[in-house]
Write a structure and sequence with these properties.
Shape: globular
Strand order of the largest sheet: 4-3-5
Number of strands: 17
Distance between the termini: 83 Å
CATH class of one domain: Mainly Alpha
């Protein structure tokens, strides 16, 4: 039940600073719900937050970061951060801070409800179902939800979490206009984009405890290359004037506190003493993703020549979104790319690693973190469909990397980590080509078997790569470690190749004559297997030969050397 200071008058109150609403996982494996005050008090005994969706966890972490940045007024630099890291009670000041701003953290306040607009209404005073803010109830797809076919009610705790998530990840599309919004045309507001975090390929560093996680992601802009250091006017939403129903005056973000609490929507919950039963939802303050890399630290960035041409700008970076079909380790280059190396080139970098990882690299360089410190990079994002009006998929992955891979003075380890992904890509491509050749030999469709074999290959290499990467901790010879990885890949993919050949059956074993550029040849599983092993040896080196330098065998296969012409 919510706190009700004036129950007889029917005044509802749900104070987020004292009422439990944030799901957490404790170090002993038990789950609980805590208030904002309790989360900071117990951060050292908590493993992590546990949202209803991974994206909800990401949004809540950013809310906690905005609170910590503002209450601590920092970290001002790496030295200030080191003092916080060494202090087990570093979040003690949050208690007084939450007391000071408690009035803006009441979910049901009549004048300034948390992350909402008091009195928000449409011209017809409509109140809409809660599936407009509950992202695990896809519109039109009730069969994939446990809340079929709609959400009738939410507890106050659940509603608070979905309010935070809505500002971060709400879909685009046409929305019902609210009274007082100048953008309304014919009762509607036309698409203005998704919530800010929906643009991102979200990345944050996870520590052993929630306390470590918050501190690792608590960047000092002045000490983070490429991140805005002008934070004197950087304020979170609760320290700004409450939003009205329309769009606020256009402005860029003032820093991470502003960006983590960006009011991308206007909404108002409708509740009674038993919970929340409806919502009014409209557009808030849109924010273009183009060239926001100086403000947003929790995503990688990619250079977009298309956007450069479209807007007539010499350099444009866009957030690098996650591909649901691609595991996090296969995109490691964008996580550990070094901006210092790119700046020494005449060409601008094609991608920039997340500034939060730049920050951790700075901590390693300054000696505030040990080079052997292992960071678990958490990967969270969404893939929207149908003109961003629905959420198709949610991405949730992680990859553990030693911070030495982020160190500017030990780039050979990072180079071998990236090269090892290329080894895996090349080997899996060879496996896919084998499946394609076997299908050709059996005179069957080729695209499906090739794709299935590549999926099989990446799945088989997923856990081995993650284990190998976690061991790349700055000890030993990185080139020998890469060579050992190549030998391991060779063994794994060879076994998969034998499996694919066996499963191809008698038709592929018998083979057939196919047309080639210089005539015809007899293609069967034996020849396809010979080509396959030749490709593997070229890209990985032959496991029975003396070790080659990593990448020495990456030249493409010249298949004509092994062809037999009729």
């Amino acid at each position: 039940m919510p706190e009700t200071s004036e129950e007889t008058a029917g005044v509802l109150s749900f104070d987020l600073t004292t009422q439990p609403w944030i799901p957490v996982l404790r170090l002993d494996g038990t789950q609980d719900e805590l208030s904002l005050r309790e989360v900071f008090e117990q951060a050292g005994t908590l493993r992590r937050l546990v949202g209803d969706l991974p994206t909800q966890e990401f949004a809540l972490v950013r809310l906690l970061l905005a609170l910590a940045h503002d209450a601590l007024d920092g970290p001002r630099d790496a030295e200030h951060w080191a003092d916080l890291w060494a202090d087990e009670n570093c979040f003690a000041s949050l208690s007084a801070y939450l007391d000071e701003h408690r009035g803006r953290f009441d979910l049901l306040d009549a004048h300034a409800p948390f992350f909402q607009v008091a009195g928000l209404h449409t011209a017809k005073n409509e109140v809409f179902p809660l599936n407009r803010i509950v992202a695990d109830v896809p519109n039109g797809e009730p069969f994939f939800s446990s809340r079929m076919p709609t959400v009738d009610r939410l507890t106050f705790a659940e509603a608070a979490r979905w309010v935070v998530h809505t500002h971060a990840y709400d879909t685009s599309g046409i929305k019902t206009g609210v009274a007082g919004d100048d953008r309304v045309k014919g009762g509607k507001v036309y698409p203005l984009g998704v919530g800010w975090a929906g643009n991102l390929g979200g990345v944050f560093a996870e520590g052993h405890t929630l306390r470590e996680t918050l501190l690792l992601n608590l960047v000092a802009p002045a000490d983070t290359p490429g991140l805005s250091s002008d934070g004197h006017d950087d304020l979170p939403a609760w320290r700004r004037e409450a939003c009205g129903p329309g769009e606020s005056p256009k402005r860029p973000p003032t820093g991470v506190r502003d960006l983590y609490t960006w009011q991308s929507r206007r909404l108002l919950l409708h509740a009674d003493a038993d919970g929340v039963h409806g919502v009014v939802l409209g557009y808030g303050d849109p924010l273009l993703a183009r060239n926001k890399h100086g403000f947003e630290p929790m995503t990688a960035w990619r250079r977009s020549t298309a956007q450069e041409k479209k807007h007539g700008e010499p350099l444009v970076y866009m957030p690098r979104e996650h591909d649901p079909a691609r595991s996090a380790w296969r995109g490691i280059a964008s996580l550990i790319a070094d901006r210092a190396e790119a700046s020494q080139s005449a060409e601008a970098a094609n991608h920039l690693r997340p500034r939060v990882l730049e920050w951790i690299a700075r901590l390693v360089t300054d000696g505030e973190l040990e080079p052997g410190f292992l960071v678990r990079a958490r990967i969270v994002g969404v893939q929207y469909g149908t003109q961003q009006s629905v959420i198709d998929e949610v991405v949730d992955d992680h990859i553990s990397i030693a911070v030495v891979l982020l160190h500017q003075h030990n780039r050979e380890f990072a180079e071998q980590a990236v090269g090892a992904v290329t080894d895996a890509d090349d080997a899996v491509k060879a496996l896919g080509d084998l499946a394609t050749d076997l299908a050709r030999a059996a005179n069957t469709e080729t695209e499906g078997p090739g794709a299935a074999a590549r999926d099989l290959g990446f799945a088989a290499l997923d856990a081995p790569y993650r284990t190998w990467l976690a061991g790349l901790d700055g000890q030993g010879d990185p080139y020998e470690q890469r060579a050992e990885w190549q030998r391991r890949v060779h063994r794994i993919v060879c076994r998969l190749g034998d499996q694919v050949i066996t499963e191809a059956g008698d038709a592929a074993w018998q083979g057939r004559t196919i047309s080639v550029k210089n005539g015809t040849e007899w293609l069967n599983s034996a020849l396809a297997g010979k080509w396959f092993r030749s490709r593997l040896d070229r890209c990985l080196g032959h496991p029975n030969l003396p070790d080659q330098p990593p990448g020495a065998g990456s030249a493409p296969v010249t298949e004509t050397a092994t062809k037999v012409h009729a």
